[in-house]
Structures are given as C-alpha cells and as structure tokens.
Amino acid sequence: MTSNASRRLERKPGFVFSLILLSPILIGVPLYSYQQHSYLPEPLHELYNAERKPQISETRILEVSRILSEDIGFRTPGTYEHALGEDWLWDQVKNIKDECEKIVEKSPHRHLECEIWRQKGSGSHRFDMMGARLYKSYVDLGNIVVRLSNGTDTGKEHSVLVNAHLDSTLPTPGAADDAICVGIMLETIRVLIESEDWQPKYAVVFLFNNAEESLQDGSHLFSTQHEIAHTVRAVLNLEAAGTRGRELLFQATSKEMIEAYSHVPRPFGTVVANDVFSSGIILSDTDFRQFQQYLGVTGLDMAIVENSYLYHMRKDVVDNIQPGVAQNFAENTLALILHLSSPPPTSPSIATLTGGFTKPATVYFSLFGKFWMYSFSMAKIMYAVLLLDAVVLITATARSHSIVGALATLGQPALAVLLAFIGSLVGANSVALVMRYLLGKPLSWFSNEYLAMVLYGPPAILGALISQYPFNQVTELQAYHATLLVQSFLALVIQLLDVGSAALFFLNAASLWAGLAVTAILGMISVRNERVSLLTYAVSSFIPLYLGSSSAYLTLEVFVPLTGRIGADAPADNLIASIVSVVGMLGFPLFVPFVCRFQSSDNRMLGKLIVVMTLVTAVPIAVFSARSPFDPMHQKRVYVLRTENITTGEHHLHLSTSDSAPGFEQFVYAVAKEFSAPPMTAPSEPADTNSTSDIASATVGEIPIPELIMMDRYNADWDPMFPFSLFLKPYKIPLHVDTTYVSPWSTTLEENRKYGFTITAVDDVIDLEGGTRSLKLVIWHPGMIWTVIAFDAHVLKWNLDDEPPNEYTRHHVKEASYYGSDTWSIELVIKIPPPSSSDPEAGKITVNFIGLEEEGMWPGKRAIIEGKSASTPGLALKLFSTLDAWITKETGDQVDALLLGCVAGVQRI
Length: 909
Ligand SMILES: *[C@@H]1O[C@H](CO)[C@@H](O)[C@H](O)[C@H]1NC(C)=O
Ligand SMILES: [Zn+2]
Hints:
Its cofactor is Zn(2+). The chain crosses the membrane at residues 15-34, 371-394, 415-438, 450-467, 479-497, 503-527, 534-555, 575-594, 606-626. It comes from Lentinula raphanica. It is found in: Endoplasmic reticulum membrane. By secondary structure, this protein is of the alpha+beta class. Among the domains are: 3-36 and 377-421 and 447-617, no CATH class; 58-127 and 141-360, Zn peptidases (Aminopeptidase). The protein has 24 helices and 20 strands. It has an 18-stranded mixed sheet that branches. Strands 8-9 form a two-stranded antiparallel sheet. The longest helix is centred in the middle third of the chain and has 29 residues, at 534-562. It is globular. Zinc ion (ZN) binds at residues 165, 177-178, 212, 239.
C-alpha cells in the first residue's frame, strides 16, 4: 500500500461518504425487517397433504367467508340475514357431528366425542365504553357451540374456548370481520377430527357467537348462561380489524398462555403491543372482555390488523383478503389448540388454571422470526447487569479512567441526547400543526399506511438537528457513551415499573454496548480523539434499525387507518407525527453521536445540515398539501341517518363523519341541495304527486341550510351510535315528504301489525308515601332493530344491574334481538317527588326512543330495491339507493356511506 493510500484511509470519511458506506445497513435492515414483517405462508388448496394427512386449506376457509359475506350478506344482529347465517352454520355443525360419529364408528378405539349446542337466550349487561355508562338488553340471541373431547367426564372437566363471531356490523358484509375466523374454526375442527392420532386430554369448545357487533351480547350469553361455560380455563379469541398480514397477538393475559403461544409456527406479538392495547388508546375491544369479566379466565386475543381501512366497511369482502392470511392464522390457531388440549409435559396443563391465573410478568417479543420470552424478574437482573456493564465499558473507553471522572463528563452529552428526542417531537409536530391549521390539509397521508414517514421524518430530523446547536463541545465518544447510558438506564427504570416494553431500550442498549465493545477490542476507537469508528455504527445499528422499522410498520398500520374513525376533533396529525418521531428515535439511537462526529466548534457542518433538512422538509409539505387523503380503497367514513320522528311527523337527514379531513361541510351542503326540500309546512311548495321518489327536488333559493348539531348525551338523534356519537359533529337537514304519506310506524299497539313503535308502562305502581314508582317499561318495536331508549330519572333499582347511579341522571339502554323478536322490557323502581308536589306530571318519565328499520339499511338491503325480495322498499331505502349512487359519483368513490333508516320519537310515561 502506498503511503498516500494509507493516509487517505486514516482520514475519516466525510458526512455524505459515511452515509454511503453505512447505506447497506441503513437501507438493507428496514427492507429485511419489512420482508419479515409481511411474510405469509403459501395458501394451500388441498384438504390433504401428500401423505394423505388432513391439512388446513385456505380455499375452504375463504369459501366459508364467501358464503357468509356474499351469499348471505350483511349479518347485522336482528336482521333476516343474521338469522340465515345462524341457520347455515347450524347445518354445518350438524354435518360435523355426523362426520365425527362416522369417524369414531370406523375406529372405535379413538377417544373422540363431538357435541353441539344451539344456545338461545336473553339477558342484559352493563357495557361502559369511551367513558360513557351504557346498558345492553338482548332477547333470544343465539350461539352455536361445538365441543370436541375424549368423551370422558374428566376430559370435559377443563376446556379451552375458541371464539369467533358470526355476525357482522351495520355497514359491512364482514368477510374478514369475522367470517374468516368462522371459517378458520370450521377448518380447524375438520383437521382435528380427521387427524387419526388426535385425542384431546382436555376438551376444546368452539363458540360461534352470533352477536359480537351488538356490543358482545353473544359472548355475554355464553359466559353467563351456557351449561359448559364453567369448564372453560382459557380462551383463544379470533378477530379481524383488517384484511392483510399476519394476525397480531395483542393481548396475552397470563404467563401460561404466552408460553403456549411460543409454540405457534409463526408468532407475531410483543409485550409492547400488549402494553399499548391495555392503555386503551385504540378505543376498541373484543369478546375477550366478556370472557375475562364473566368467566374470569385468561387467554390470547389475536386479530388480523393490517389494512384496517376496510374494517367495518362495505369493501370488507373476500376479494380484498390477502392470500395467506387465513392459512397463517389457521395454522397458528391449530398449533395452539393442539398444545392446549394435550397432556403435560408437552405443554403446561390448562387444568392448572382452575384456581385463576396471575397477571403475566413476562417479557416477550418476536425478533428475527423467533419468539423470545423471559420473566420480569429475569429482565430486572439482565437490565441491571447491562447498566453495570455499560458503566464499566464507558469507564474503560473514556479518557478519564475513573468511574466518577468518566460519568462526570456525560452531563452535557446526556442533555444533548434528551433534547434531540424532544427536538424531533417538536419538529414533526410543528409540521402536523402547519398541515392541519395553517394549510388546512389534515390527514394528507391517510391513503397509505407508511406515507406519513415521508412527511414527518424530515422535520423530526430537522428538529433534532436544531436541538444540537448548543452542544458543539460534545465529542462523538461522549455522545456515544451518553446514549448507551441513557438507553440502559431507561431499560432498567421502566422495567422496575413493571412495564415490559422496557425491552425495546434493553435491546437497543445491548446493541450499542456490543458495537462499542467489539470495536474497542479491535482497537478501532480513538480514546485520545474521543471518536468511534464507522464500524461501531455498523455493528450497533442493526438491531435498533430492525426494531425501529418493524415498530414503524406495525404502529402505522394500526394507527393511520384508525385516524379515519377517531372523530373530527382528535389530533390525528399530531398522533401520527409523534409516532413517526418515536419510532425514529427507536431506530436511530446513534443520531446524536453521528452528528457530533461531524460537529465543529463553529457549528459549520450543523448549519449546513439544517439548511439542507429545511429544504427536504418543505418539499413533502408542498406535495402532501396537494393530495386527497382518500381514494376508493381508503375511503372516508360518512354516517347517514334518515330519521322519521313519529312524535312530530318530521323527517330529517342526519350526516356526520369521524375524521378531521376538510370538505365535509361542502359535502353536506351539496347533499342538501340535491336531496332536501323546504320543510313540509312550507306553504309555497305544492305536493309533488307524480313523483316516484317521495323527495321533491328543491328549487334554488329554497334549500334549507344544514344545521350543525352540538352533540351531548341529551341529544337523541344519534343514539343508535351512542356513545361513539359523542365524538361526532353532525349536520341535520329537513326532508320534504309527500302530503299523501301515511306513516306505517306511528301506530298504537294492536295485534298483528308489521310495523310500529310503542312504549308502555305495565305493573305501574306509585307509592306516594315511600316516594317511589315501580314499573315495567315495555318497548314494542316490530320491524325495528337495535332500538335505544334514553331517559332521565333517579333510578333506585332495576333489573339491568345492582348499582344504578344514586342520582337523577340520563340513562341509555340499547337492545339487540333475534330476527322477528319485537318486544323487550326493563323493570324499574324510580324516585318520585313527595306527595305535596303540586305537579300532576310528577313521577312521569320522558323516554326518547329510536331504532333502525330492519328493511331500511343500505347497502345491506339492496335486494329489496332490486325487487329480489317480497318486501316493498320504504322511504329510507328509496332515498338511499339514489343518494348512495350520487355520493359514489360525486366523490369518485372516495366515500363509504353507512346509510340507516331510523324511526324515533318521544313518549311521556
Ligand atoms: C322527536 O321529536 C321530539 C319532539 O320534538 C323530540 O323531543 C325528540 O328529540 C325527537 N327525536 C329525535 C330522535 O329526533
Ligand atoms: Zn369483529
């Protein structure tokens, strides 16, 4: 080597050249982690493998989902299709029993028994959500249950419950949510009973629950009333809030169940997801809640989460489910069942869970395709050792060779590290504020899960750079030491608070430690110049980049689509900006040392970088400002109610949305212009007699101005969506109705009516002395589903739960029932004013009521408009078919409207 060349090698590479040298890692690791993140197995078509053994067939799972979501349709609890879905599944389950019996007949030594139940029942439960108190009352809802056991009493004494729901919610065919999981359960049952050597030591109970979307009535019914519910020791809940990717384990409630999960072929779950979910920020919950609350059991809650744009949308159809999703989920589920149903020692026995379970104190995560787990106490020891080792390594590689001397120089550098994080948060959030308030372009990144990184990444870096301005005296080695110290310190402190997510800091700190130790041993760091080598970065960055990028993919996949349904006032842009800067900090812990590497006392390099990053920040702001947040596969959610108030005879269109994107007001005005008309009392409007639609088109100048409604719990307009409705900022438009219209709904109680809505008080007893009134409120609602009543009263006692709030306040009770079941009731004892009160109305209660027309939901009931059903379309359906076509055309299919025909009123009782 010539002396020239060796001198060149000694010279440190410049900023850009360093980045180029590190680029294989900077680019390669995120790509590698994306490949790991998005890996799915090849979907299988055949029912048997080459050795003629049964295997999971994705084709068969998707066929179940297709039948439920397409042939049968929108299975909203209470609808005709909901009942059809249950009948269809009951046939499948009866076939399973027949098959099972044939198999056992052929091999009489096989210890296998298949039992089935069709459960029907009524009940009620309190269901608080989003900070609001709420009650559910349900009538004649159903569950279908299959139990596989070895046929003995001891074999049935302990069981593992596998749950999925058969119903879908209001606007969706629910191919992924949750028909795919119904298919997974059916296919798993087939594979289990056809596997000749499978004989369960413990029973497996499959619950096909047919009322999850009505706020978990089905799982409540099973947990509180089914004869075998008490045998359940553990739960596997199978859900979907998306249509792509591996199913995520987002709740694991005991050490035993985490251990069981470690045996699945393709684990995907971390204690971090568990911590995030249990913080409640995602605002969602599953049947798991009922099993926890009423059965007191532990379990695993798993769900398909990627591409959550289609969650509860009409495009949740089989064609949009990614190939491999079902194969992956089913094979993981099968592995779990095989484990949990077999005797120890191959797995921990679920029988040990009889006496309850302990909250998990386990750190777990999947890294490089492997599942890692260790206890909190182990974690504390490991993290403490690492902190100690960090101090030792810092001392050994510092200029001052005393611990005190080494640590004393780290005050400034540690502050630099801390400020870099704050700077990146401030930078990204400033752009979020600019986008939302200055430019009026919130949600500009919505249509792609990862796009927000392009918008918020540069300002996060810029903010971090600016924060480094005061620290031009900090050396690279000091900054490295400070980062290592801060990360290992945070790991220990957070773990001491029993938060398992501390593992992220531990893994980062361990990599920093390893990188420094290796290059120090190789003699590649310069203690005298206080510099480390580029190789130090190369070694140390691998794990942080992997963790940072995989956390970015997952959190953005969960939170970006979520911003389309968290309400117009939620700070969506700031939420996503903060996520980008946090995952950035996770992925690039060596940002500060790297900047210090090129720092000089005159801040020349830093100044240049700041100028460059400012330009890099500006470009995406400009580009994103011109973007529409929505497109046909990433739609805006719009909620539309067409409500007939049978007390006043008025008809209104109510519109709202649940995101902060601009333009909704204009949209509402356009709808008003196209579909509203002067109120029916307007004298100037002649009755439009020859119109087939009952909505007369408005003439310009007479368009009623949509009224912006301030929501609170006293406004009954949106009670079908209470308490989610409290997050809405809806508009209300009066509708004109033909004078010849005779309402089928406003009838008094008579026999054999198909439609109606009446509330009566029976067993009504007033005790003036005691100051109480006891009564049974009977709600009669033929043709209506999902009825809600709201009233103000001081309830002393009722049959909904044991502890009504001891005050005069508003109560909301929602109902869900089986198709055709048209009355429900609640029993109340309320406080009334003393007898001296001169008010003759004293003791009366005012009940607001509202419900959905079973035949008034679009697009679920499209068949009625298309004449494929015996029913004749009502006002709501007629309006919706044209309104929906208009919306699709006007917005270029960027809007998915949930259209519900409602009937409401108020009664004094
Ligand atoms: C129906 O009209 C009555 C009387 O004006 C009103 O109190 C009630 O809130 C209305 N209900 C709905 C849901 O619009
Ligand atoms: Zn679901």
